[in-house]
Design brief:
Helix content: 25-40%
Structural class: alpha/beta
Largest sheet: 8 strands, parallel, barrel
Radius of gyration: 20 Å
Strand content: 5-15%
Catalytic activity: Endohydrolysis of (1->4)-beta-D-xylosidic linkages in xylans
Keywords: Carbohydrate metabolism, Glycosidase, Hydrolase, Polysaccharide degradation, Signal, Xylan degradation
Strand order of the largest sheet: 1-2-3-4-5-6-8-9
Number of domains: 1
Number of strands: 9
CATH superfamily: Glycosidases
GO molecular function: endo-1,4-beta-xylanase activity
Order of helices and strands: HHEHHEHHEHHEHHEHEEHEHEHH
Enzyme class: hydrolase
EC number: 3.2.1.8
């Protein structure tokens, strides 16, 4: 959901956010398909639809804290709870944030076994000019992860968004293959043996583009045709044969969304074909951007979809998990209950499938979340989409995630 020296400006992030919001959810709503409620420092120590809430997540024998958080740090980390289930738990982060905020860095070090660069491996930061790469931010994140014995999940080698301006000018059928291969060879080759897995192609399926194969009409497809996807995976595999290679996308999560159900079927068809053709795809990435203003419809349809993915011989990674509480009604305590219950319902459904091997939240603390810019609340209250609050205290969402992994309640 980028890799050079500096992060994108707030204005650029807001512009991208508005575009992304229109492109993901508003497009489906207009189509009538979406029902209510998709320099290195030191590494230091609204109204939405109704949601039915259970009391499972409330601390037994005590009231919920006024701020909706459980202030004491739990004895077992999320990484430890996940590992006992054979799952790698991690979070998406910015390296400069870890360098300038020792308390947040310590929380990441305690809770996570893996890191995903939120922006510093995307084209717009990593490749500012056709013949120039800027690896500073990506190098720093990999350095931090290696220093703490953490895995790195690379994000993302090919995407239709977050691209530098020059790419639109340079990309055409005569140049696209060379640009694609040069980029993947340089990036994956640089981090071979240090990045465990890669989102090789991100958001390749878009049924609203009305192609018979269901593929998105991205700049890469327009330049190279559908073969750009096998080409990207094959190039990544050549550059690092040991890396796990992922096709990642949004819009698989809800059983009661017709377009998501249809997208599941399209994705299975494409994956089955690529597997038959020997394309080195090792996992499907399910982003997991969940909504706090609609019922958590994560049922048998989702479970069946995950079983079908696993039958293709693929692992499954949850790559960008969070809960958008932009339109969730109530005060902090109520909203935190709703968000926690959605995490709980989703992860309990997903983790029923043994092929799920990684869960990554898109951020770890509300102190640093892209939801603040992308989906601000109308009432001006801070958004609370993540397991820890802005003071780095664990929330009910953190308890829900731990319990879904089978951790201490």
């Amino acid at each position: 959901m980028a890799g050079g020296g500096a992060a994108a400006s707030p204005g650029a992030r807001r512009t991208a956010a508005r575009s992304r919001l229109r492109g993901v959810f508003h497009r489906h709503r207009r189509a009538g398909e979406l029902s209510r409620g998709p320099g290195h420092g030191s590494w230091g120590p609204g109204g939405g639809g109704a949601v039915t809430i259970t009391r499972r997540l409330v601390v037994a024998g005590g009231a919920i804290a006024a701020a909706g958080a459980c202030r004491a740090q739990p004895a077992e980390s999320l990484a430890e709870a996940a590992a006992r289930r054979g799952v790698l738990f991690g979070a998406a982060v910015e390296p400069q944030t870890l360098d300038r905020d020792p308390a947040f860095a310590a929380l990441i070090r305690r809770e996570c076994a893996g890191l995903t660069p939120e922006n510093h491996m995307k084209w717009n930061l990593l490749r500012p000019a056709p013949r120039r790469f800027d690896f500073a931010g990506a190098d720093r994140l990999v350095e931090i992860a290696q220093g703490q014995g953490m895995a790195v999940h690379g994000h993302a080698l090919v995407w239709h968004e977050a691209n530098p301006d020059w790419l639109a000018r340079e990309l055409n059928p005569g140049t696209a293959a060379e640009i694609l291969y040069e980029h993947i060879d340089a990036v994956v080759g640089r981090y071979a043996g240090r990045v465990r897995s890669w989102d090789v192609v991100n958001e390749a399926i878009e049924r609203n583009d009305r192609r018979p194969d269901g593929l998105r009409r991205s700049p890469w497809l327009e330049a190279l045709g559908p073969d750009y996807i096998p080409m990207a995976f094959e190039a990544a595999h050549r550059a690092d044969p040991a890396a796990r290679l992922v096709l990642s996308d949004y819009g698989f999560e809800y059983d009661d969304e017709a377009w998501m159900v249809e997208k599941r079927g399209t994705t299975l068809e494409r994956l089955a074909g690529w597997r038959r053709d020997g394309v080195p795809i090792h996992a499907l990435g399910i982003q997991g951007h969940l909504l706090g203003d609609r019922p958590p419809a994560f049922g048998e349809g989702l479970r069946r979809f995950l079983r079908d993915v696993a039958r293709l011989g693929l692992e499954i990674y949850v790559t960008e998990l969070d809960v958008n509480d932009q339109n969730t009604q109530g005060g902090v305590v109520r909203r935190d209950e709703v968000v926690a219950e959605i995490y709980d319902a989703f992860l309990r459904a997903v983790l029923d499938e043994p092929a799920v091997r990684m869960v990554t939240t898109w951020g770890l603390s509300d102190r640093y979340t892209s939801k603040a810019d992308m989906f601000p609340r109308r009432d001006g209250a801070p958004v609370r989409p993540l397991p820890f609050d802005r003071d780095l205290a664990p929330k009910l969402a953190r308890r829900a995630i731990a319990q879904a992994f089978g951790g201490v309640r």
